[in-house]
Specification:
alpha/beta; Rossmann fold; L-2-Hydroxyisocaproate Dehydrogenase, Chain A, domain 2; 2 domains; nine-stranded mixed sheet; 9 helices; 14 strands; globular
Length: 310
């Protein structure tokens, strides 16, 4: 009898609970929700279970009372932490969320030592590095959700501008998950045509800026809280690639060990995902301008890492 995978999600806020719903809805795994606010996790797990029953889905979702409940997880997703508020940058979250991620990573190391860890907590690149250092896991088993979401946002803005199908657009967004992300225009095509043949440089620059500021725009519009449908869908896509051992390429926040001439930092780059986590880090050939921006993103993330205490 085939064993159903188990995914544990630390943090039952909007991102965590929506991710749980999407994973269970697709039948990818049974899901455990864990949150310091235990009743919130219980309530959302119960609500999701009712929704699954309404759709005749068989995946189970339940809340754990403590970290022992994440034992034997195939994947642990970290969404716990403080969300951004209007006017707040991801950098502002560094100290507060570092304390959260350190505590969570220690518990994952203790209770789910064989799990693959996907980090969603911001500032994403730095928190992923911190989780890697605290767990002591192989870097192939610790990575972050960033590029999948950033690429999806870029696709959406391009599709809206050109009135094109999203499925016809190929693009990747690398670098830091924030203002220093790098939309890779040299690898962006619509129906096989380079983006530069369809839009002016000014129009392309405008779409790139919209992509960089998309998260902040949603924070501003909401007033409280931040995006969660997009992040949740992006995490679920990564989970599916891992559990299905798909060996498909996705932009994730990965540990660089010489790729792009950069070492000892987590940044967004294409990676082949499979049952072992990151199977291969794909190094794209970038334009000189893209390489410069990528290096700047690396330096900025390293500067934030230098502020960590672990």
């Amino acid at each position: 009898m085939k064993t159903i995978p188990k995914v544990s999600i630390i943090g039952a806020g909007n991102v965590g609970s929506t991710t749980a719903m999407m994973i269970a809805q697709e039948g990818l795994a049974d899901v455990v929700l864990l949150d310091v606010a235990q009743n919130i996790a219980r309530a959302k797990a119960l609500d999701i279970s009712h929704a699954l029953a309404a759709q005749s889905r068989d995946a189970r979702v339940w809340a754990a009372d403590n970290f022992s409940g994440i034992g034997a997880s195939d994947i642990v997703i970290i969404t716990a932490g403080f969300p951004r508020k209007p006017g707040m940058s991801r950098d502002d979250l560094l100290k507060a969320n570092a304390d959260v991620v350190k505590g969570v990573a220690k518990e994952i190391k203790k209770h789910a030592p064989a799990a693959i860890v996907i980090v969603v907590t911001n500032p994403l690149d730095v928190m992923t590095y911190l989780a890697y250092k605290i767990t002591g896991f192989s870097n192939s088993r610790v990575f972050g959700m960033a590029g999948v979401l950033d690429s999806a946002r870029f696709v959406d803005f391009i599709a809206e501008k050109l009135k094109a199908k999203r499925s016809d657009i190929e693009t990747m967004v690398l670098g830091s998950h924030g203002s220093l992300m790098v939309p890779v225009l040299s690898h962006t095509k619509i129906g096989g045509k380079p983006l530069a043949e369809l839009l002016t440089q000014a129009q392309i620059a405008e779409l790139a800026e919209l992509t960089k500021n998309a998260g902040a725009q949603i924070v501003s519009l909401l007033g409280t809280g931040s995006a969660y449908y997009g992040p949740a869908a992006s995490v679920a896509r990564m989970v599916k690639a891992v559990l299905a051992n798909s060996k498909t390429t996705h932009c994730v926040c990965a540990y660089l060990q010489g790729q792009y001439g950069i070492r000892d930092v987590y940044l967004g780059t294409p990676c082949v995902l499979g049952k072992k986590g990151i199977e291969t880090v794909v190094e794209l050939k970038l334009s000189p301008q893209e390489s410069e921006l990528f290096s700047k993103a690396a330096e900025a993330v390293k500067a934030m890492i230098a502020k960590l205490e672990y």
